Structure formats: structure tokens, C-alpha cells
Design the sequence.
């Protein structure tokens, strides 16, 4: 019985985190519409935090998430992503991630 309750609780937490991610995306879009830099920053930070925690609840460690992000950035650079070509955003983020 206890194990069933634990599984149900974990499933409920995952569903709640999924709604949090959607809510943060909504808040981000509203902040962009309003032009509020403070709210955009807050919304992006909340979205990133919720994504990391959702990943953890799904069995992905923070380290694995970081490694996956770095791998994705490396792949984007190799494939000549437009944001890299135009602004070097991919390299800048990769450097930031590696220095942490």
C-alpha cells in the first residue's frame, strides 16, 4: 500500500511540474509582450529551474542535464547553427556552461 502511494505521489509531482513548465512559458510570453526585462528574466529563470527539477524527478541528474546541454551546444556548433554564425550565441553559452 505504501509503495502504491509513493508511486502515485511521484506521478502527481511530475504532472504538477509539467504544469509549472507550461505556466512559466505563458508568463514568459506575457513578459515579452509587456517588454518587462525583469519579468522576462524571472520567467526564464523559473522555466530553467522547473525544467531541471522535472528532469530530476524523471531520473535525469543535474550533471547529466548539464552534459546533455553541452553536447547539444557542441552539435549545434558543428552543424553551423545560424545563431552561432550570426552572433556566436552557441559558443558563448558553451563557454559559460564549462566555466561553472
Sequence:
Amino acid at each position: 500500500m505504501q509503495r502504491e502511494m509513493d508511486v502515485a505521489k511521484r506521478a502527481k509531482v511530475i504532472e504538477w511540474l509539467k504544469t509549472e513548465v507550461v505556466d512559466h512559458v505563458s508568463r514568459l510570453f506575457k513578459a515579452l509582450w509587456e517588454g518587462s526585462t525583469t519579468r522576462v528574466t524571472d520567467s526564464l529563470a523559473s522555466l530553467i529551474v522547473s525544467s531541471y527539477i522535472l528532469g530530476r524527478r524523471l531520473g535525469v541528474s543535474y550533471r547529466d542535464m548539464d552534459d546533455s546541454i553541452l553536447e547539444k551546444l557542441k552539435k549545434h556548433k558543428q552543424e553551423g547553427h545560424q545563431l552561432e554564425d550570426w552572433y556566436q550565441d552557441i559558443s558563448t553559452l558553451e563557454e559559460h556552461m564549462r566555466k561553472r
User: Anything to note?
Assistant: Residues 2-34 form the longest helix (33 residues).
